[in-house]
What we know:
This protein is mainly beta. Helix content is 13%, strand content 34%.
Amino acid sequence: MAGRLYIPPLDLDRLLPGLTVDETPITGANLAPRRPLSLIRLEAGRPRLGSAFWGLTPPWLKVLDHAPHCARAESLESRAMFREAFAARRCLVPAGGVYVWKAQPRAKQPFLVTRTDRGPLLLAGLWCRFHTSLTEHADSLALITVPTNDLLAPLTDRLPAVIAADDAERWLAPETPAEERRALLIPAPGELLGAFPVSRRVNDPGNRDAACAHPIGPMLRLTPEQERR
């Protein structure tokens, strides 16, 4: 699962040319659910940066603690919580990385999963809107997870789906057929992502300084020999 994100300042204009940015992007070295995140969605046919609460809260949800921060790709169309949003309200969350915890005999070791070139990631998500009055509303989101690739499987069994920048418009467009949407929700290529161990400071969501994301060991990544296979 994805319970913590690393979101440094990102060059969003370079990532998605034509993106409308009307507000300051949300950044942080150790962002946990139940707080706002920046998201990208289509508005009037163009991608626009906005923000939403991280934890999907449809209007009928009674208990905020039950708001899911992740949705499994395999159950998007079988669960009422996600079905409508998957059909019509898809989004992207720009991020620098995702924290995961590897089980060890004494204590779990946190790792930061990033692009091997440390570039930005576009994470697949769903969003919904809850009208609090005739003129006011609150938006919320959940990330979509898929099984991990073989390289990262020893660290975690699931990660957010990564959408390539070239596929962003297709993912966001409401008219994209279901089979095309599903085809984008696959494990990231082995050569795209790597992971390195970080300080256990990240275990406490109250620790939000840059040291949370600093490597304390080498990056786990495919070797050139593995990439050629």
